[in-house]
């Protein structure tokens, strides 16, 4: 964390994905904020995302974080062109997973979240299209939904602009500038931009912008999506969901198609990958989905793509000053495929690091020093296992 909370009038944010845009929105209330992006708004992981919102599940151990994120999407809904689509979710469980799933559901329900465990026959009574013969049941969430990630990012941008933030797109940051032990700006192709603080929210490129000797424990991984057109369009009740044992998740599209995500694996050379979906992932989906949901025997392949996000050792982002960083430097990276739903914590956490103002949740989960000396090649943990 920053050793002291100095007045930091001008903050430069590197990256206009959801993380950078959310930080800009919250900081612009009382700071001069400049957001720089090498290409455009939502140009990388954000724009390629499935946009699923399920913080109750992924922050089940941190209910205040889940509540904050859930509340944010509902409060921000219907502003700046943004819409939160509410939709129930089923997380399908095998026999071996059922006991733990029941405990999770009852813990979350005790915390006041609308979550319950139901056996397979109760789930198929409500959603007859699913074939759950191989499964024991599902954890059912009633506080989940999805967003269009591009519109969400532009809505955050517009909210930040309303508060006075400036966005410079096509502006690649090539280096950080420090003065003594303090960060003093960034280098771009068109010159130096001075700053009192710099927040690097540059996705997998974050590490390459850090000064020599300063590291954050993140590593790039690839994750994919396929969209299928069923024989008849899905109803407006069709839920979101996940089959953890198959490492896939799904959600309906507004037009009744089905988006299916998965196919994650860590990579070392992100710059060499395309956004094309792997044939092997496409074939896995073509095998699994018609068995799992009725109406997909003759489904059409609509689209498929892949993107690169960053993993951290414990699947939670690092939103903090890295160890040995110049004073005034923060990173917000390592969102582990959950960056859209986790984005509401970015602005408040960055504010706490820079100004000392405490949010409604503990930011310890996002501290840079929580891993000790984990190496950069730490084992990748898929959030399908969370
Ligand atoms: C296929 C896929 C599906 C996903 N599904 C979900 C989901 O359902 N729900 C969910 O919550 N999350 C999901 N995610 C994860 C989510 O999209 C990411 O965690 C999130 O978008 C990360 O946001 P970010 O702002 O950290 O990074 P990014 O969106 O990658 O933004 C980083 C920005 O930094 C810019 N940049 C990089 N280097 C520089 C530089 N040197 N100078 C200037 N600018 C720079 C880039 O141009 C980019 O715009 C998914 C991701 C993918 C790829």
From TrEMBL:
- Highest taxon in the source lineage: Archaea
| Gene3D superfamilies reported in the protein's UniProt record | D-Amino Acid Oxidase, subunit A, domain 2, FAD/NAD(P)-binding domain
The UniProt entry's GO CC annotations, sorted and at most eight, read: cytoplasm
UniProt GO molecular function: oxidoreductase activity
Q: Which residues form the FAD dependent oxidoreductase domain?
A: 10-349
The record, for SUPFAM superfamilies, names: FAD/NAD(P)-binding domain
Is Oxidoreductase among the key words of this record?
Answer: yes
Q: Which keywords describe this protein according to UniProt?
A: Oxidoreductase, Plasmid
Q: Which PROSITE patterns match?
A: PROKAR_LIPOPROTEIN (PS51257)
* Pfam families tied to this protein: DAO
Q: Does the keyword Flavoprotein apply?
A: no
Known PANTHER family for this protein? FAD-DEPENDENT OXIDOREDUCTASE DOMAIN-CONTAINING PROTEIN 1, SARCOSINE DEHYDROGENASE-RELATED
Give the protein name, as stated in the record. Answer: FAD-dependent oxidoreductase
Which organism is this entry from? Natrialba magadii (strain ATCC 43099 / DSM 3394 / CCM 3739 / CIP 104546 / IAM 13178 / JCM 8861 / NBRC 102185 / NCIMB 2190 / MS3)
| Lineage of the species this protein comes from | Archaea, Methanobacteriati, Methanobacteriota, Stenosarchaea group, Halobacteria
């Amino acid at each position: 964390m920053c050793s002291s909370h100095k007045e930091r009038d001008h903050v430069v944010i590197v990256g206009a994905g959801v993380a950078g845009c959310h930080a800009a929105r919250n900081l612009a209330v009382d700071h001069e904020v400049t957001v720089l992006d090498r290409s455009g708004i939502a140009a990388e992981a954000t724009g390629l995302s499935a946009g699923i919102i399920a913080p109750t599940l992924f922050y089940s151990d941190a209910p205040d974080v889940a509540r904050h994120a859930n509340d944010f999407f509902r409060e921000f809904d219907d502003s700046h062109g943004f819409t939160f689509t509410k939709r129930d979710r089923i997380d399908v469980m095998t026999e071996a997973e059922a006991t733990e799933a029941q405990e999770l559901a009852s813990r979350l329900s005790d915390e006041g979240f609308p979550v319950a465990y139901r056996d397979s026959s109760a789930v198929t009574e409500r959603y007859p299209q699913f074939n759950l013969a191989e499964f024991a049941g599902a954890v059912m969430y009633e506080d989940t939904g999805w967003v269009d990630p591009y519109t969400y990012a532009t809505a955050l941008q517009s909210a930040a602009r309303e508060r006075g933030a400036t966005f410079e797109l096509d502006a690649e940051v090539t280096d950080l500038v420090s003065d003594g032990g303090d960060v003093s700006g960034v280098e771009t192709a068109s010159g130096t931009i001075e700053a009192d603080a710099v927040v690097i929210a540059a996705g997998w490129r974050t590490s390459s912008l850090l000064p020599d000797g300063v590291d954050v424990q993140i590593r790039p991984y690839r994750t994919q999506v396929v969209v299928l057109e069923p024989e008849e369009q899905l109803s407006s009740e069709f839920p979101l969901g996940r089959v953890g044992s198959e490492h896939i998740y799904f959600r309906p599209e507004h037009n009744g198609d089905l988006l299916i995500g998965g196919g994650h694996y860590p990579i070392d050379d992100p710059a060499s990958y395309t956004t094309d979906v792997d044939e092997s992932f496409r074939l896995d989906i073509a095998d699994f989905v018609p068995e799992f949901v009725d109406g997909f025997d003759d489904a059409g392949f609509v689209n498929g793509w892949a993107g690169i996000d960053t993993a951290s050792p414990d699947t939670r982002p690092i939103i903090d000053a890295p160890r040995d960083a110049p004073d005034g430097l923060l990173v917000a990276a390592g969102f582990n495929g959950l960056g859209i739903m986790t984005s509401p914590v970015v602005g408040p956490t960055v504010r706490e690091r820079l100004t000392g103002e405490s949010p409604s949740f503990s930011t310890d989960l996002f501290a840079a020093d929580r891993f000790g000396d984990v190496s950069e090649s730490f084992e990748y943990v898929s959030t399908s296992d969370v």
